[in-house]
Specification:
about 90 residues; alpha+beta; 5-stranded antiparallel beta sheet; about 30% strand
Length: about 90
């Protein structure tokens, strides 16, 4: 699973040929959440409150790039790296 971004201990990844809706995986320690790209709602799993807040802030700023990466993954292409939250 390609890592597309990393910041403050949070790892953002995307799988190839994933199921709808378009989403990404956010990992923080032993926690993992799947987050819908369009709504920025957690669709599975959970993250600690602060990690989730940072992840949503980052995703909100990079929604278009996330959709581009989703489309690349759906066509079995390597997604592009996305700038981390600073």
């Amino acid at each position: 699973m390609p890592t597309i971004s990393q910041f403050f201990g949070i790892v953002i990844q995307m799988f190839w040929l994933e199921h709808a809706p378009p989403h990404f995986h956010a990992l923080y320690g032993e926690h993992e959440a799947l987050i819908d790209i369009q709504t920025l709602v957690v669709i599975q799993g959970s993250l600690p409150r602060r990690a989730l807040s940072l992840t949503i802030e980052w995703a909100s700023a990079h929604r278009e790039e996330l959709m581009e990466d989703w489309n690349l993954c759906q066509s079995k292409q390597l997604p592009k790296r996305i700038e981390p939250l600073e």
